[in-house]
Amino acid sequence: MTSSKVARRYAQALLELAAEQGQLEAWGAELERLAQMVSSPELLVRLTSPELADQQRLEAMTLLASRLELSFPLRSFAVVVARHGRIKDMAAIAEAYQVLLDQHLGRARATLTFAVQPADADLATVVEGLERLSGKKVIAAVAVDPSLIGGVVAELEGRIYDASLATRLNLLERQMSR
């Protein structure tokens, strides 16, 4: 089974439990903190080393989860992941959880690239347009790329909506050269 399938299964199991407990967002944030810590190169190498005994690995994950002040269910989840030899998949599990959570809550994530840092009103206008287009609540990440000259390029659910001045100028140049 591929790592992404495994990650999705673990994420799905945690999401179902989180939904029952009303802890969808909280457990997602805890899982993200755990994944960031475990995924640090130094720690990941040590936790996944074949030289580390299984019991020591479980104790290390328990201690790490405790130090991160994770809730009891997330501490247990961390130990289960470690027991099944899936520590290296923790970042993928956290990512899969976020995707499933967004689907569950009817959200979509978008990357908006502007030529300059947008004003709050401009950002809100673009987000509102994407929400109308997708029918979902849009969570936007903003990037700046001066090569766009003006306008915005939005990536939402695998689609790219390009309203940049650079693209429009390129299209105009091609039309005029015919």
Describe this entry's structure for a reader.
The chain is an alpha+beta fold and 178 residues long. Helix content is 62%, strand content 16%. It contains 8 helices and 4 strands, in the order ααααααβαβββα. Strands 2-1-3-4 form a 4-stranded mixed beta sheet. β3 and β4 form a beta hairpin. α1 runs antiparallel to α2, α2 runs antiparallel to α6 and α4 runs antiparallel to α5. It is elongated and about 70 Å long. The termini are far apart.
As laid out across the biggest beta sheet, the strand order is 2-1-3-4
- Category by helix and strand content: alpha+beta
Number of E-type strands: 4
Helix content: 55-70%
Number of helices: 8
| First-last Cα distance | 52 Å
Runs in which pLDDT lies below 50 for 5 or more consecutive residues are none
Biggest pleated sheet: 4 strands, mixed
- SS strand fraction: 15-25%
Gross morphology is elongated
SSE order: HHHHHHEHEEEH
Mean pLDDT across all amino acids: 96
Radius of gyration from CA coordinates: 21 Å
